[in-house]
Write a structure and sequence with these properties.
Layout: H1 4-12, E1 18-20, E2 28-30, E3 33-34, H2 43-50, H3 64-79, H4 90-103, H5 105-118, H6 137-149, H7 152-173, H8 181-186
Antiparallel strand pairs: 1-2, 2-3
């Protein structure tokens, strides 16, 4: 089964440290946790106290309880919501976790469900799953059955294509978001051909 720590380390490499970008809909953020969307997160109290100290924001990285709070937040709000511990493939769990952090759990799981359905050979491998963004028993069963017959790379490619299409739609709707394009594209890994 997948390991949260491996997914967390990979995703945290994409999430910046402290930032307050006026073009970011989340406003003030730390390690990708947006204050506007998560005003009750316990880490904001520590960050607000630390703002008055010399060395801010670099000194945040050395505050152990703050780093523990970040890890706890990511596990509770993302990994646990899509049942990461029940995912048989570390690669799929990594993808779901990173996409969840960047796009929300519902959208990330929906992308996985869409990928499972379009790669289903007209339901000859398993019944199609509802594309509802909920990672329940039917989605987990379809994923298990998919992985018994096909390489993980195809599933990852479809999910990443959907993720890329989502980013393009955001930028077309709001050109101020184009400055994030390269960072978003770094999160998409189409990968090699499965038979290469």
């Amino acid at each position: 089964m997948a390991d949260f720590g491996k997914a967390y380390e990979k995703t945290l490499a994409f999430e910046g440290e402290y930032a307050f970008d006026p073009d970011d809909p989340g406003g003030e953020t730390y390690r990708g946790i947006a204050r506007r969307f998560n005003p009750g997160w316990e880490g904001w109290k520590t960050i607000d106290r630390t703002k008055r100290m010399a060395g801010f924001p670099e000194n945040l990285e050395s505050i152990g309880p703050l780093q523990t709070a970040v890890r706890k937040f990511y596990k509770q709000h993302y990994w646990d919501r899509f049942q990461g511990d029940m995912i048989a493939s570390q690669e799929i769990a990594n993808e779901l976790f990173d996409a969840s952090v960047n796009l929300g759990v519902t959208r990330a799981v929906t992308f996985l469900q869409t990928a499972l359905n379009v790669l289903n050979r007209n339901q000859s491998s398993y019944p199609d799953v509802a594309e509802d963004g909920l990672c329940g028993p039917k989605t987990l069963e379809a994923l298990t059955r998919y992985l018994q017959n096909d390489p993980v790379e195809y599933l990852l490619k479809v999910a990443n294509i959907l993720q890329g299409m989502h980013y393009i739609a955001i930028m077309k709707k709001s050109p101020t978001q184009e400055k994030y394009a390269r960072g978003w594209l770094d999160r998409i890994d189409i990968g090699p051909h499965p038979r290469a």
